[in-house]
Amino acid sequence: MTTFEGARRQPGSSRDDIREAVDAHLREDVSYLGNLLGRVLRESGGEGLFADVERVRLAVIGAYEGQEAVETAQGFVDDLDQERAEQVARAFTCYFHLSNLAEEHHRVRVLKRRGSAAGDASDSLPATLDQLTEEVGAEAAADRLQNLRFQPVLTAHPTEARRRAVASAIRRISDLLEARDSSQNDIETGDIERRLLEEVDTLWRTSPIRTTRPTPLDEVRTAMNVFDQTLFEIVPRVYRLLDDRLQGDAAGSTPPVAPAFLRLSSWIGGDRDGNPHVTADVTRQAAEIASEHVLLGLSRAASRIGSTLTLDEADTPPDAGLQALADSQHALDEALASRIGIRSPGETHRRVLLFIAARIRATRKGGPLAYGSPEVLLDEIRTIQASLRAAGAHRAANGELQNLVWQVETFGFHLAELEVRQHSQVHRTALAEIRAGGELSEMTTEVLEVFKTIKGLQERFGRRGAARYIVSFTQSSDDLENVFSLAEAALGSKEAAPVLDVIPLFETFADLDNSTRILTEILESPSYRERLDATGRTVEVMLGYSDSSKDVGPVSATFALYDAQARISDWAAENDIELTLFHGRGGAMGRGGGPANEAVMAQPPGSVAGRFKITEQGEVIFAQYGNKTIAARHIEQMAAATLMASSPSNEKLNADAATRYGALAETMDAASRERFFGLVKADGFAQWFAQVTPMEEIGLLALGSRPARRGLSVSSLEDLRAIPWVFAWSQARINLAGWYGLGSALAAVGDVEILRDAFANWPLFAAMIKNVEMSLAKTDETIARQYLALADRDDLTAAVMDEMALTRQWVLATSGSDDVLGGRPVLSRAVRLRSPYVDALSLLQLRALRGIRRSVEKDPADADHRLLLLSVNGIAAGLQNTG
Fold first, then answer.
1. Lesser CB count within 10 Å: N end or C end of the chain?
2. CB-side exposure of 383: number of CA atoms within 13 Å?
3. Of 455, 550, 778, 865, which is the active-site residue?
């Protein structure tokens, strides 16, 4: 479909120039999928629909290139009747889904071509280990590798705009596109094309708007798709690639040295902060669903490996340990052992592993065959390995059987540690009610039920299953102590209470500033000290990127977070504590987004120490883990960055930069904060924000199970969640949350040479500038003005547009580029190619918003609201980020 191949003209370049600069394979994929969509549109809506899509396409390209006014394109959009406007919105949305798929497919192609997953890239784990070895020596580097820990935390996303049905259709198209690349003949290729047309037609006919809000358990099951399709398989693959490079020719013939460094956590079904739909029963079911998936995966893997372990005991005799295990299995279930033995005569290793597979299946439902813990399972698998090695069958011991060991070590029987989060105020209210006596409210009863659920989960899955309890908006040491008190009240005694690692979450600027004082105070708590002793003095502290950015602006939040990490790291060192900092980052630039591996390398000295924990939200989960090749690369990059962040060279780089540019940071902090407060604290700002963005209307979308606000109206921004704050600005093509105040901050420094020096030598500053470049690349001044014109506040409009221009000017001066993303040409071209089509959806959204603003009756079911919601989905897909 040639309707979706245009791009905006850049200085000195035409659309053809830009397209020629994009890899030919990617161009072919986008063109091919676009043509399929064009056929589907003609079949569905006739030539009229196709012509209207083309008309809008050419109009927005003309406006984007400056060949005609944007008002002309807006006129074409406004002339469409309601049904056609919705169809055009859906057509552009489908195009973006297909275009995103093509880009992902091409990324996989490039990764395979480069062979980076095999360790050839400079940021691969083997290359990183080599560099670390040069700095600290082989023994120290090996020790650091063994203690490496990367822990992604899956979280539901309240602005994940894409329906699961849409995501499933896209994944089927992706599989067919991959099959097309490897098709062997015209008959096979023709069959694939027919099936592709069927799937594209399904995607076109599937409503992009959810009719009902997903439940927390729906969100759990969506995340399980990622585990089933990618994570379970690729995690041992990443370990294997590392082991192969570390051992060279000896790999597979000697025991592996690569550690199982990944641990998975989840908030989905456990995060109840502001989400009344997450109950104790939901938390229990979420854990059970996760366990069901991992036990299914383990039992299938054990059965598959067992069926291939056909080593005759005449050549590969069992040792005494394996024979004892076989005897114990026979005693446990004689009939089952006999049935397996009939199928495996003279194959003791196979017989024992198939019995293990049966026990894993039984563990899903309980009973006498069920394993009591994953540690028992690991012991039995290792018994098989030891016997194989004793018999000289080293490759059988260290091959697929080792992959199974790695999977059990990584996922246990729980898959992901289910972490509970609740707001500190809820705890205060519940505890006050308990201490006052009398009948408890429904809220307090539910709070207590959560602790009983955690206790039950620990009894079933062990402490790894659920022990971490995060306290949102921790403002005092009492907020942490309250959790222990509530657990004791729920279970009746301190001894009966579940084991809890209570984790403070410092979110606002004030909380970040007070963090070390609060941490020092909590060390006086007997309950906290007791847990500290039990864990070997390990402590986890979570930092909130979203609310701190909404609180003081993105520039001041960046510096505040860095300062807090540095102070907390010093506090940990002074108190002989092994610290893990938990980074609550989002996918968008206004929420700490951007390349996470670069962010790891920019952390303060001593704050990483080989351990990095980070939230992975909604859309990011599928972007990073939805494809096996991309997931393997992402895990490897993050692990390598986590390992390298604590290298002497990197820590010295960050320490020197913090000292050298301390005065610059102070100047930027003061100027950016003054500029940010001047906007958000202006009279009527909240109401104006609701007028110039679709913030209110976003709340009508059935996006996630959690409400967009904690309860207050739009008259107050204090209670608005940071995610829809970012989402609304991105929808309006302004992206204010990602850059506002930076222009004033850089201008306050005023010295281009100093700024360029900082850009070259200060990782934190460079990461901030690069992230803002991405935010600016996705803004559009012309479209932004159309949104800002929805309200009559020339002063606030001028403040936004002036700061946008100032930020662009100083960012380019600082980076030394002629255009934003000038240093990242591939990314720049990708943004430019899709931007005019995002404009089409923005103009459709503006049409809808104007209609809604004119209407006296605010009916969420009317045509304007429906068109707006359709456009929200499309813009989110086009920009490739929501909140």
1. N
2. 22
3. 550
